[in-house]
């Protein structure tokens, strides 16, 4: 429940990504009129929103004129760093609130800036190598393996693990071409246990709200691996709370974070944390839906409240240890395959333990052929809940049994899902 009445206000969603469809539902639930601004005239969100604007979100003058002419009360985006920066600048221009400053947004849009900020505040990060060109690779003493990335990309695009100089030279060209700025980052490769930490700030009070473990699909040959399963709470929750959380909180407070949702991606090796990326935004795995189930607090809804009032509304005490078990299934599809139809969704929605199903692609879409090992091949996010970890595994198996994505030839194009017996063996802790 929101703390302020926002009925009748006019909210502008910048960008028409299908994955933000639930914001339209949240707006309508609260009596808010919502419009979508996107260059794509046919985006699904324009069909369900109250207003549709065929405007390029990156055209600042056109967007500013739209806000003025349409008497927009608030502006918002969700999962995209570039759009977040657009909304930040637009908010400054038209006098509408946005939770993060330009400087804070650099934590999300520049991986080097994030790492150097971590170092400043004593938050551990992987070792970094200064590589500006091919010649630097040849003359720098590098302890392989390393991983090379564009400093300003997302979804694992342009990322390559490298085990020798030849691979690094090839990876350099790939990362450089995928970078908008042409800049890359090379750091120690740590293929160990991956976690994601979600922080929520409410009028200056910052809390660690959730930690989840990330499991990666290993059934396809690709340079990088895409996650196909998230488990809440993390097996490393106590370690983070006892050893690292205060330093991270100090960093976030020191750079002036007051409101909003953000996440940090990290690796655990030998009980040592290494933080490597941050997202100053909602995460794409939609942790806010699980937090709503666990805490009766929908972060997306309260970000909408902030966009319209300048406040995150009611404050909630979060406990990242959780009272129940949760899983998010990232349903990975075969790169290059066309989606003819989805099967099993209606039956799954009848189960009380099913929290949410969100599809990235519509029927008729083709999964990009070059998406292997990236989150671009993630077709669907499915959230489930259980009282025990054994029960959680059973429900994951049920989803895997029922949910299918069929191509025009009648093939199920979902990659082999994670082995639940293997996952269960790793859950050697209790709530």
Short key terms for the protein model shown above:
alpha+beta; 431 residues; Rossmann fold; 4-stranded parallel beta sheet; 18 strands; D-amino Acid Aminotransferase, Chain A, domain 1; 8-stranded antiparallel beta sheet; 3 domains; globular; 25% strand; Dna Ligase, domain 1
Q: Any overview of this molecule?
A:
The protein is of the alpha+beta class. It has three domains: 10-98, Rossmann fold (3-Layer(aba) Sandwich), CATH 3.40.50.20; 127-188, Dna Ligase, domain 1; 202-234 and 252-262 and 277-426, ATP-grasp fold, B domain (D-amino Acid Aminotransferase, Chain A, domain 1). The protein is built from 14 helices and 18 strands. The strands form four sheets. It has an eight-stranded antiparallel beta sheet, with helices on both faces. The mean pLDDT is 92.
Shape: globular
Average pLDDT, all residues: 92
Give the strand tally: 18
What is the CA-CA span between the terminal residues? 27 Å
Segments where pLDDT lies below 50 for 5+ residues? none
Write the layout of secondary structure elements.
Blueprint: E1 10-14, H1 21-29, E2 33-37, H2 44-48, E3 51-53, H3 60-69, E4 74-76, H4 81-94, H5 102-109, H6 111-120, E5 128-129, H7 134-139, E6 146-150, E7 160-162, H8 165-178, E8 184-188, E9 193-202, E10 205-216, E11 227-232, H9 237-254, E12 260-269, E13 272-279, H10 287-295, H11 299-309, E14 325-332, E15 341-343, H12 345-348, E16 354-359, E17 378-386, H13 389-402, E18 404-406, H14 420-426
Parallel strand pairs: 1-2, 1-4, 2-3
Antiparallel strand pairs: 5-8, 6-7, 6-8, 9-10, 9-12, 10-11, 11-14, 12-13, 14-17, 15-18, 16-17
Helix pairs in contact: 3-4, 4-5, 5-6, 13-14
């Amino acid at each position: 429940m929101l703390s302020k009445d926002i009925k009748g206000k006019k909210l502008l969603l910048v960008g028409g990504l299908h994955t933000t469809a639930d914001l339209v539902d949240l707006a309508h639930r609260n009596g808010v009129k919502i419009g979508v601004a996107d260059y794509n005239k046919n985006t699904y969100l324009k069909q369900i929103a109250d207003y549709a604007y065929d405007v390029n979100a990156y055209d600042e003058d056109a967007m500013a004129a739209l806000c003025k002419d349409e008497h927009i009360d608030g502006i918002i985006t969700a999962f995209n760093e570039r759009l977040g920066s657009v909304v930040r600048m637009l908010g400054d221009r038209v006098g509408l609130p946005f939770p993060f400053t330009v400087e804070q947004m650099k934590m999300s849009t520049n991986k080097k800036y994030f790492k150097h900020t971590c170092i400043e505040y004593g938050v551990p990060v992987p070792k970094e190598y200064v590589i500006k060109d091919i010649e630097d690779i040849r003359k720098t003493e590098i302890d392989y393996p390393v991983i090379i990335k564009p400093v300003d990309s997302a979804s694992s695009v342009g990322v390559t693990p490298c085990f020798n100089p030849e691979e690094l030279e090839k990876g350099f060209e790939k990362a450089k071409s995928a970078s908008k700025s042409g800049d890359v980052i090379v750091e120690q490769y740590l293929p160990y246990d991956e976690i994601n930490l979600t922080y929520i700030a409410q009028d200056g009070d910052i809390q660690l709200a959730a930690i989840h473990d990330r499991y990666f699909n290993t059934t396809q040959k690709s340079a990088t691996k895409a996650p196909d399963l998230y488990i809440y709470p993390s097996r490393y929750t106590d370690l983070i709370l006892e050893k690292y959380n205060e330093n991270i909180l100090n960093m976030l407070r020191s750079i002036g974070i007051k409101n909003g949702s953000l996440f940090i991606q990290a690796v655990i090796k030998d009980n040592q944390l290494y933080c490597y990326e941050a997202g100053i935004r909602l995460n794409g795995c939609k942790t806010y839906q699980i937090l709503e189930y666990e805490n009766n607090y929908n972060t997306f809804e309260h970000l909408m409240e902030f966009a319209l009032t300048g406040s995150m509304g009611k404050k909630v005490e979060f406990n990242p240890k959780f009272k129940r078990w949760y899983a998010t299934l990232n349903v990975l599809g075969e790169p290059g395959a066309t989606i003819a139809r989805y099967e099993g969704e209606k039956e799954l929605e009848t189960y009380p333990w099913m929290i949410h199903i969100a599809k990235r692609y519509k029927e008729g879409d083709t999964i990009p052929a070059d998406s292997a090992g990236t989150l671009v091949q993630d077709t669907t996010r499915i959230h489930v809940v259980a009282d025990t970890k054994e029960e959680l595994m059973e429900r994951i198996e049920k989803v895997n049994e029922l949910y299918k994505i069929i191509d025009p030839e009648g093939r199920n194009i979902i990659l082999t899902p994670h082995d639940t017996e293997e996952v269960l063996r790793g859950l050697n802790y209790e709530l």
